[in-house]
Predict the 3D structure of the following.
Amino acid sequence: MLHSPVPAAEKRAELRRRLSSGELLQLPGAFNPLSARLIERKGFDGVYISGAVISADLGLPDIGLTTLSEVATRAGQIARMTELPALVDADTGFGEPMNVARTVQILEDAGVAGLHIEDQVNPKRCGHLDGKQVVDTATAVQRIRAAVEGRRDPNLLIMARTDIRALEGLPAALDRARELVDAGADAIFPEAMLDLGEYEAMREAARVPILANMTEFGKSDLFTRDQLEDAGVSIAIYPVSLLRLAMGAAERGLDVLRSEGTLAGVVGGMQTRAELYDLLDYAGYNRFDDGVFNFSLEGNRQS
């Protein structure tokens, strides 16, 4: 009820423990707090908070237009709603190294278990679009060092994302990953990898947990959980999947309403009122309400 009873520090420690086990963790992307609760209920390992989804939710393209306050607000709303650890997309850190350190502290205060900082040039763009640019190694390293210096909870996962694969090839990506790990990155997010062999090479080079971005309509194939685990991947994210599913269903429903004048024919595909109330824990709120408002003013009224 209300917010998760699990403190953020415990979620961070649990994420670290799970990553050290060597198993693959699946983190679907939550597009709002309620979807985060659904992800938890379905038994997943964590929640991902996508910058592309936050942008889309605001009606904006994913080209670096969102602000730190917008990302932190939505990240906090989602992280507080679930007992699962939340990993958030912090883009390029919203500025220069000092800004990166401040970004880390604000997102830490929001209750996330981890975040990733990327090496794109500002303004950044979706990692699966052409035309992106990356900063030089010195700048990328400086961002990660600032992020590590900025965190206060040592269990907060600082992940470095690199987009250099699409621009300069796999060898450059492996070299960049090594530099970022030496700078203090706890994990590596190599964007737009082409096959499982590239993930294997990245894990071997980085020697830290690596993340696979299983976004639809991108440059990477949609590998299975077992394939990714066999390749040495530690985290798989599905960043925009739930938003795409929801918007696809909404579009089809609106088409039906427009053409038929009623939604009666598609009610069977909707979440029921009972299912929604159960997910929201109406019963828990009712119990809480009865426990608080169980007094009477009779005999205490002044004339």
Summary: Strands lie at 25-28, 47-49, 86-89, 114-118, 157-162, 187-190, 211-213, 235-238. Residues 56 and 62 are 7 Å apart (CA to CA). DSSP finds 13 helices and eight strands in the chain.
